Write the structure tokens for this entry.
Amino acid sequence: MHGGTEVKSFQSNDSVTFQIIEGKLRFHVRKDTITLNEGQLMTLDENIKYSLTTQEETVFLLTISNDISKNAVN
């Protein structure tokens, strides 16, 4: 993400994990703000609304995990 970027109000139906490769990323979840630094990671369960901001160039790995057992047909 470019410095000064904001991704407003996003909610995933799946679990998501963010791993910071370079830079810093701020998560705004409910009333809390969490800053992740290079090398840190965070996982959010499904259906949690969040937004992201960064003040500097930031590279992160986003992993989306779909619980396949929820969608299994017997």
